[in-house]
Amino acid sequence: LGGMLASIDSSDVDSEVLDLTGGTTAWIGLNDESTEGTYVWADGTSVGDYTNWNSGETGEPNDWGDSEDCVEMTSSGGWNDNSCSNTQASLCEIPTILLEYSYYSDSLSRDDAESACEAAGGMLASITSAEIDEEIVELTGGDSAWIGLNDESTEGTYVWADGTSVGDYTPTGTLVSPTTGGTPIGTLVSPTTLGRVRTVWR
C-alpha cells in the first residue's frame, strides 16, 4: 500500500485517530527500537513537542520488563509502550494523491501552456468525469482553456497529458481547441499534491 504506521503530532490528529479506531487499542509508529528511551516515528522523525503518554501508577513509557519498544494507542487515546511482538490492530498512514486544479488566464500556445503547468509542478488537466467537468467550467468561468487531451502521437487516438487513454468519459458537444484570435487562452493545470489518509487495520 506504500504506507507506514501512523505518526501523531498534535492533539487534533490524536482525536481524529481515536475517532477512527473507535477506542480499539492499535499500534502507532512511535518506537525506541534503535536506542532505548529515544522515541522516533516510523518515518525516522523525532517525537517532537506533542506526546500523549498514559499516566498512572507506573507512568508511561516504562519499558516494563525491559521488553517494551513499540507504542500503542489505547482505548482512552493515550499512548502506552508495549512489546513489539504483541498482536493487535494497527493504525497505518497511507499517502494518497489529491488533485487540485488551477486556472491561469495568460494567453499561451499549447506547448507553452504545457511548460507553464510543468513549472507549477503539475500538468495540463485530465477531465475524467462529469463532476470534474462541472468543477472546471466553474473554475474557468466558461472561458476557453487548454486541457491535457491530445492526439499528437497518433492521429485520432486521444490521450491525456499523463499518457492515459481518454477513457469512458468525454464531454457532450464538440471539442474545440482555443485559438489565439484575439481571445485570451487559459491554461488549466492539475498539480498533484500528497495528502495523508489514516486507516485502521484490524
Low-confidence spans: 173-186, 189-202
Strand content: 15-25%
Main beta sheet: strand number and arrangement? 6 strands, mixed
Helix fraction bin = 10-25%
According to CATH, the homologous superfamily of the largest domain is: Mannose-Binding Protein A, subunit A
* Structure classification: alpha+beta
- CATH class of the largest domain reads Alpha Beta
Give the domain tally. 2
Rg from C-alpha positions? 25 Å
What CATH calls the topology of the largest domain is Mannose-Binding Protein A, Chain A
Order of helices and strands: EHEEEEEHHEEE
Number of helices: 3
Quick check: average pLDDT? Answer: 79
Write down how many β-strands occur, each being a DSSP E stretch of 2 or more residues: 9
Separation of the first and last Cα atoms: 16 Å
**What is the multimeric organization of the chains shown?**
single chain
The CATH architecture designation of the largest domain is Roll
> What's the overall geometry?
elongated
